[in-house]
Design brief:
The protein has about 100 residues and is low in regular secondary structure. It has one domain. It is built from two helices and four strands, in the order E-E-H-E-H-E.
C-alpha cells in the first residue's frame, strides 16, 4: 500500500483515502530473513515529489516496474492523454 502526504496535510493518507476507492492488494511476503535493503523487499524510502513530478504506480504491484524502481516522472515526460477509457467497465467511455 502506498502512503501519500498531499500538500497542506499534516499527516500521510493511504492510497485508498486519496483515490476514494477501496480495492484488493495482493502481495507475496519476502522470504524469512530478507533484508529491507534488498530488491523486492517492498520497503521503499520516503520520496518527496517536486513541482510537475508524478509518481506512477503499476496496477500489478508484484510485476510492475514503476516509480518505485525508476523514481518520479516529470510532466515533460508525459506524452499522451486519456481520450477513451475501457476499464473498469463501470467507467467505460470518455473521461
Amino acid at each position: 500500500m502506498f502512503f501519500v502526504k498531499v500538500p497542506g496535510a499534516g499527516h500521510f493518507l493511504t492510497e485508498f483515502e486519496v483515490s476514494g476507492r477501496v480495492y484488493e492488494l495482493g502481495a507475496t511476503p519476502a522470504p524469512e530473513g530478507w533484508s529491507d535493503e534488498l530488491p523486492l523487499s517492498d520497503s521503499y524510502p520516503e520520496l518527496a515529489l517536486g513541482p510537475d513530478e508524478y509518481f506512477l504506480a503499476g496496477d500489478d504491484r508484484l510485476a510492475s516496474a514503476d516509480s518505485r524502481v525508476w523514481g518520479p516522472v516529470g510532466r515533460d515526460r508525459l506524452l499522451g492523454r486519456v481520450s477513451f477509457r475501457y476499464w473498469p467497465f463501470a467507467r467505460f467511455g470518455k473521461p
